[in-house]
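Journal club side-thread
Mid-discussion, someone asked how the predicted structure for our own chain would compare to the paper's figures. Pasting it here so we can look after the session.
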Amino acid sequence: MEQRGGGNIIRIRGLKKSFGPEVVLDSLDLDIERGQTLVVIGRSGCGKSVLLKHITGLVRPDAGEILFEGEDMTRFDRKKLFQMRMHFGMLFQSSALFDSMTVGENVALSLRKHSEMSEEEIATVVGEKLRLVGLTGVSTHYPAEMSGGMKKRVGLARAVVMNPQVVLYDEPTTGLDPIMADVINELIRTLQRELAITSVVVTHDIKSAYHVGDRIAMLHEGRIIFSGTPDEVRRTDNPVLRQFVEGRAEGPIKPI
């Protein structure tokens, strides 16, 4: 797939998705700029994870287009969609490591399936990615031997092992104590800088959003109602966004 310089690496227009009578995404528009970290915030259950699944092609929209490098992914056949996914990495909320595999085997999985590297080359790459996330000497350990924060970092090493153009993060700080959450936030920034990747982070953690985001977009009632820099979020008079970032019960967003 041809890579273009500058501008938006992903452009979403008119995205619609319903599950039965429930409208989750309602004519959603969103631009994701190359090399930046975009954070999508919103209440739990508002559709943030569904949006990520559309970006990777795991869910097909009812209508709309998702342009990646100028090509509409919603029109890709299965083979081309699989090829497109090679440009993406994903850190799952639960880390999604395979308990029966060692740390090294978990990180190396994509390399073994989708590259022609020798075992020696794979070991070198795995070691480098684990070093990037602050984990050395753990390749032979199993996930059950690790803390939640360590598992997140292993999952992050696996997400970047193929040197993707885009890394997607689904609630990366959920379940972590404040110190480990800050470690993960720093890693998101470090990997963006060192690997020149574009990052999309979905979260309801405002502290994390301010820390990692070049831009922050709010998803509410199926649409992006605001997109701007962290400073613009802090200064906004948008009542929905203001209530959310301040964590107030009173306001236009009603408790469910």
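Post-session note: Residues 36-48+88-246 form a domain with the Rossmann fold fold (CATH 3.40.50.300).
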